[in-house]
Amino acid sequence: MTDITLYKGKFCLSTDKAKLDIDSIHQFLSTKAYWALNIPKDKVQTTIQNSLCFGVYIDEKQIGFAKIISDFSTIAYLGDVYILEEYRGIGLSKWLIETIMAHPDLQGLRRWILLTGDAHGLYRQFGWTDIAEPSKWMELYNKNVYSP
């Protein structure tokens, strides 16, 4: 896997898993992310171990995250994308998605997929569209899997 580390002013974006702040990621996902509320920390750790992860930092503090689940040949799922609220509106999410889409190990894929409830405008800037044939897609979804 090709590790990357980029800088934009005082911000750093890196795929180095050693830099990831698991506690910070878990805190955000389990309490602020509508798609992962109450997710147990061990689930966050497992998904990080099994994914290509992108962290966004300022002065070593983690302020953003995204993961890719992929076979690195035909398909990639983009998930758990966030920038902390106090750092939004300055282009970090665009930089994050741009960097993910340009990652050398994610080129030539037949399909990218993601789920979003509120960031369609961000992804459309990078060529994402609604599913062309939704009748072909199926899912097995347990909305309450992390509920106490």
TrEMBL record:
GO terms for molecular function: acyltransferase activity, transferring groups other than amino-acyl groups. It comes from Chryseobacterium daecheongense. The lineage of its organism: Bacteria, Pseudomonadati, Bacteroidota, Flavobacteriia, Flavobacteriales. This is N-acetylglutamate synthase-like GNAT family acetyltransferase. It holds the Pfam family Acetyltransf_1. Keywords: Transferase. The keyword Membrane does not apply. Residues 1-146 form the N-acetyltransferase domain. PROSITE patterns: GNAT.
